Structure prediction request, 606 residues.
Amino acid sequence: MEKAFTSVSAFSKCNEGRIKMAKTVLELQQITKSFTDKTKQTEVLKGIDFSINEGEFITLLGASGCGKTTLLRIIAGLESADTGSVLLEGEDITKKEPYLRDVNMVFQNYALFPHMTVAENIGYGLKTKKVPKKEIATKVQEMLELVQLEGYEKRMPDKLSGGQRQRVAIARAMINQPKVLLLDEPLGALDLKLRRQMQLELKRLQKKLNTTFIYITHDQEEAINMSDRIAVMHDGVFEQVGTPNEIYYQPETSYVASFVGNANLYHKADAVYAVRAESVLINETECTLDAVVIEKSFAGGQLRILFALSDGQKITASRFGIDYDLKVGEQAKIGWKEDSAVRVIANEN
Amino acid sequence: MKKNSLLSTIYLWIVTIILYIPIILTVIYSFNDNKSPVYWTGFSMRWYEELAHDRSMKEALINSLILAFSSCGLSILIATSAALAMRKRESKWDKIITYLSTLPIMIPEIILGMVFLGVFSFMNLPFGMLTLIIAHTTFCIPYIFSMVKARLQGIGTQLEEAAYDLGARPFRVFWDVTLPSILPAILSGAILAFAMSFDDVVISIFVTGASTNTLAIKIYTKLKTGVTPEINALATVLLVVTIAVILLSEITKKKEE
Prediction:
């Protein structure tokens, strides 16, 4: 009896979670891609295997040049993979033309059609599918409401602010109810405040429509804020795929540790440990390492204190507030609790 | 500093006056009641009336318009498709082709005229409207080609990709997105080409037949028998048309920006 009860509660727990049913919507199998320049051949994607569940918010996180945009373009059909296949709801769409794929993309610089009004832009995807005009008008109105742009239908894109253009671009893609929505750094051109606001709005929209999102960014805060799962990309491979928690607290490689939240990499013997700056303790009982303060700086609401250990390694500790009771040049003991150091595979250059 | 700016102002005025006095005089004397280009005897529209009744002039004007419109139309087709085709492919020849295709602007007209004459004689083409159109199309293409090519480079491919992504098939993408994007460039190139064709004398003289006169040729040949005020009147009309066309081109360019 008790057992049955547990399984029911486990089921309902799963149901209220973000992933309603783990139905695979998109599957990437062994995707590779190289670009040939005059002088050399660059391998941009080195065998990507990945599957995405319906309604998931997936972020591809990586520095520029890691191949994330290429991967997105391959899913959209704007680029073709050298090898491997793309499956959309089980159907192989690797060779399908972009205009026949049930995925849509929000481009980095919005790519709104400058000679069309807001309404014409948003309705374009339906127009190409020969949806009756009346129906288009109704749906456009719904989308405008959804992205809070009522009354803007007759405006031209160049008469809109960056944030408004962004909303039009999102509405234009979403109106087609794609199986997967691809977003290529959609907030990259906005200022910080607007970006934060749009992050929340996008997340709200995604939940409301239960659309699968594949989101590209190089901003780890954005990734952590919005995603169900994050795939950290580096040099054409997925370094680690996991929930924001896993990526942040259990990085598998030193690259992930340092890229997501700038963790300290502490080398001891042959091993490398990732220690987050906020986990570094100063002058407490656990502290066993001799260190000298070499720099203090204030950024993002936090004071970052840079220590040099006696063997030359540098460790950053962060504290809330704008100053700390240690001067540059002063000696201190630092350390961390054992469980806040995560052993990682060293692959940072 | 102030003196300097005063000097440069005076200099600019002198240049402008020197440039425009002949034009202004031509316009003024087109309204002169006297046949002489020296004495002013009163305002009159008689030369315009005479011009309007001159049948050979009318014929020449119609020829000029047919020629300018058809060579412009042909160049739009050829130049635009060439620019579009070159965008799709990346080849080391592209630079050379681009350079070669803009060359007709730089080659002296007299040489072009001789070349056309040679080619058309070799091909045994009857000299007349056909040869005129071929020749004019050739020198009109570079104007449109270079403008459209620059515009295509400017717009990039993202808009078209967005259209593909939204379900538009290739022809639809061209019609809905590519063409509207390059239309201002096509138009301003075509207007320039039109003006070039309309006032061309040198090349036209080489390739026209005995019975086909364009307006520009007509004026040139009339000069041999002495300048009549009728020519002044015609020049004024052409001037107005040309300025209007160029203004139109500038306006479309502005709109494009």
User: Anything to note?
Assistant: The CA atoms of residues 232 and 240 of chain A lie 5 Å apart. Chain A touches chain B at residues 76-78, 97-100, 103-105, 107, 109, 111-115, 124-125, 128-129, 172-173, 176 (CB under 8 Å). Chain A has two domains: 6-249, 269-344. The two ends of chain A are 55 Å apart (CA to CA).
